[in-house]
Each structure stands twice: as C-alpha cells, then as structure tokens.
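Tutorial sheet, problem 5. The two components below are modelled jointly, 646 residues in total.
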Amino acid sequence: MQKPRRASKTGKKTKPAARRVTRTRTVNLQASVKMRAAQVDRELGRTLGRLRDFPAHGGVSPPTRLLAAMAHSLLAGGKRLRPVICIESCVAAGGHAPAAFRSACALEMVHTYSLIHDDLPAMDDDDLRRGQPTCHKAFDEATAILAGDGLLTDAFLVLAQAPRNPLRQVTELAAAAGSFGMVGGQMDDILAEGQDPAQVELEAIHRRKTGRLFVASSVLGGLCAGAGDREIAALRTYGAALGFAFQVWDDVLDVVDTTGKGGKGVGRDEKHDKATYVRRHGLDGARFLAHQAADRAVHALKPFGKRGAVLAALARYAVERDH
Amino acid sequence: MQKPRRASKTGKKTKPAARRVTRTRTVNLQASVKMRAAQVDRELGRTLGRLRDFPAHGGVSPPTRLLAAMAHSLLAGGKRLRPVICIESCVAAGGHAPAAFRSACALEMVHTYSLIHDDLPAMDDDDLRRGQPTCHKAFDEATAILAGDGLLTDAFLVLAQAPRNPLRQVTELAAAAGSFGMVGGQMDDILAEGQDPAQVELEAIHRRKTGRLFVASSVLGGLCAGAGDREIAALRTYGAALGFAFQVWDDVLDVVDTTGKGGKGVGRDEKHDKATYVRRHGLDGARFLAHQAADRAVHALKPFGKRGAVLAALARYAVERDH
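Model answer (structure tokens):
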C-alpha cells in the first residue's frame, strides 16, 4: 500500500488515499450539484416538449401513453450525475453551461432508457426505481420496452442539435452506449451471474456497463465547449476514473450502508451472488481502489485549474458518500 | 371511383390504376433488387465486423452472445427493402451506390431492431421471423432486448460515419425512428388492438409505424448523393407514397394471398381483430388506394428521369406482388 506523503493529523495509517481526498468543500459541491440538477430537470421537461416542434414531425405528437411512460421515468428525479458531469466538464473546458444542456439531456435520456430496460422482468425484474414504480409496473411491459426505445432514439435527435461538434458527440455517445459499450456491459452482467464470481472480469464489465457512459458524459461536455484534443483526453481520463470510483464505492456501500438511503437495499448484490470489488479485494482493498481512482480523477483535472473545482469535488464525493 | 383516362385493351373497368402500372420490366427490377440486396447483405456483415475496429472501442469486442444475437436477426436475409430504396435513391439523385452503403446498413439495423422488439412476448409474441426462430426464441428474452438495443445504438455509430451529410442523416433517422415516428407507431398499433377497428386512425398509425422509415430510406439515399432541397422533397414524397402502397397491398395480400409465401399467414390480422385498409375500404377500395399511391410514387420520380427507373419499378412491384 502506498505510503502517505505527509504526517496525518488523525494518525490513522490505513486509508492514505482517503485522507488526501478529504479536503473537500462539501457545501459548495452540494449547492453546485443541486443547482445543476435543477437545471437538468427543467431542461429535460423542455426537451420532451420541444421534440413536438421538430419540423419533420409535422406537428403530430406520439401516443399520450408512450410520452407519459417516457416522462414517468425521465422526470422521476435522480442524481442527474451524467448530465451534471457533462455540464461541469463544459464549464471546466471554458464553455458556458447552457452550451451543454442538450448533450446533458441526451445523456440522461440514454441513461434512463437503460434503467427502464434493465428493470424489465426478463432482465433484473425490479419493481421500484428512484423510489417510484418502475416503468413496466406503472404502465406495462410493452409500453416500457417502447418507452426505452423512444428515449434512446430521441436522445440522438436531441444530441444532433447540440450547438457545437454535434457529429462527434453522436459518434461518442453511440460508441459508448452501443453493443461495444453499455449494452455489451449489460449482457456481460447477465452472463456473469451464473459464473464463479472469482472468474468474472469485473473490470471489463464495469468499464462497459457504466464506465463508458461516464467517459462520454465528460467528453461530450468538453466537445460542447469546443475543447482541444489534449483537454478532451484529460476529460476522458477523468470520466473513466470517476466512473470507476463510483462503481467500487457502490460495492462498498452495498456491504456497509446502514442508512437505508441506498437505492438497492443492502447486501442485494451479495444475495444475487454477483461479483463485486468487495468480494474480490476485501472491504479495505475496495476502499483503497476507490480512493486511488478518485485521486486519478482529480489529477486529470490539472489542466483546467480552478474551473475544474466542481468536478474535483465530485470525485471526492464519490468515495466519501454514505449512500 | 376515378374514370380510366384511356380506352382499355382488356376491357376491364374496375381497376384503372392497376392497368396503368402494369408496364413494368419485372425482370430488370428483380435483377436490380437481387443485386442490391446481395450488396446489402455483404455490407451488413462487414459493418458488424468493422464496429470492432472503431478507435473508441479500444479493440475490445462485445460479449459473443450479444453479437451472435444481433447477427442472427440482422443477417437472416429478408427483402432488404429499406436499404435497397436508400441505395437506389442515391443513384437516382446522381450518386454512386457505395456512397449509400453505410446509411443503407444503418437503416436495416434500425428495421431489424424494431422487428426483434416487436416479436418479444410482451409485444406481438412471435416465434418465427424471416423463416427462422425469432431472436428471443433462438437466444432468450433478455438477450433479444439487448440485441435490439445494440443494433439501434450502433446504427447511429454507423450512420455518423456516412461520407456525406452525416449529421442531417442522423437527424432524419432519429426523427423517423423515435417516439414521434416508428416507436410511436408501434405504441399506436398496440393501443389500437382493443379498439373498434372502425374508429382507429389507420393512416396515422401506418404513417408512423412504417411510413416514416420508408421516407427516411429515400431521403438518406438522396443525402448520400448530396441532393438539393428539391430532389430531397421529391424523394420524401416518393418514400411516403411507396410506404403507403406497400402497407395497403400487405393488407390486400393478407386476405387474398394463397401462395403461402407471405410471412405472416393469411388472415392473421383478421384473427387479431386489427384494423386494416381492406376492412375499412373493401378489397377493391384497398386495391385502388394502393395503385393510386404507386402512381403518386412514380410521379414523384420525374425530376430524376431514367436514373429513377428502378425506384419506379419498385413502386409498381409494391402493388403487383402476390406475396
């Protein structure tokens, strides 16, 4: 284990990485994220409405039930992590937040579609999501399948109207979300369930299932700001490390969370016999990995100076949160 | 009913439109379509392989099972109608066929995803498609959901690499396939099943469910050729009329087909109590509507002269085929 560089005030020697990342102005982060999430919620509502005005649609609306199902899942709240990362990455790269709103909405639409399909009876068969009935419970299975399909497809329509670099953004998101990315990761995840958890390639599954959408979130933000190749590369590193930190810390919380705030219920992965970082590396090992990843994420933000402060705080939050 | 403009050689007065469209060089069309479909089959195989080389994927393949399920449905053959329309529209607008290959593949990927999801137990619950077990029968439900998601998402990755007008193509396809287009039409279709067939807005359902992807097919072809606004508008009219002709003629064949070549089995819509054009307008009325639409499609091709010959033959074929 890496040696702490400075003497510790608390004297604990077991979590060097943890100590280094505790210098977080939590209040600022909470306020920033809350403000951004509120912006995202407002923009998502507008985006659904704006689709109707798209010329090619000829003023015709989709069936009310389909739109209601899409809205049910899309507007159910949630942390809005991906859109917040996107907007803050745009700001870090010197852009204005509103330049990233469309891309942020597209990311949340893709994320929401993946949750709707993931919750289906044939997949994870979940009844609750974000504290509400899942889409197929609130409506029905066919409607949920179509609501997911609609959100995914419409996301590309929204993204194609991004004010800067729309084509690169479409390419980035499609690559991240498709069969080589998120969808492939969901398949991995299903295939891994029957396997010996020790044999499962956790890293590859995670990188695909959630990691690539995190990377796309920060890269899209950079593209919205017209960032250069070096800044995009830095955001790519940040997104990958942040996604990893969140994932490993989720595994940690699945074991130690006693707040009842966690979405899935403690020990759920354990019951499902899923491979997790805690099973693989032990609780302390997983904690260390998560903190190490958060450090990598913060380090990647150096080129952005103070403009990267919220992103840095987010990386620290990823491995400090208790739910 | 409209009066035939010229004296008829056969003397039959009931199907004026039918007579006007019988001057088809069927052999040429068959050869052309067969050649194009073979090109499409080859390109689809290459496209699946080429995804692997996409830089952002870092040389990592998706899970074999997912790729196998996608290939199972995508490479199962079929008429390849949408890609053929796309390629021929490119040729009609003065482009070279290969310029439209990527867009043609993207269209077939989107069409195939819609079939996979449409066949799911929660939707139409079909066991056979294109003479083979449906995706969820050959694999399982979860894999089929993901294979559809993968094809849809990857289609946008493929389309974003189109050599000309990629962004306009992404916008066109996303608008045509999303909640205001094809997905909305599938929802319409489900909602209509319980209703009084006489009250169902057949036109709106059809326009969304299949019509808009036909329109996108011809428009994408035009965009691949760098066509101007007037040519794009002509292709839009052609695609809409062609799609309508195919749909109405399908309803006709559902009642009169005795060849056993039809995919769905004769009278299937009748059994499902679905609203069809034959139910609404009678057999002769539906035939007339279909021929009228084929005429509209052929008429729209005027600006393209001889280069539009295959598209014109296709429109005539739409309302002459017996399966």
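Marking note: Chain B touches chain A through 58 residues (CB under 8 Å). Full credit if you identified this.
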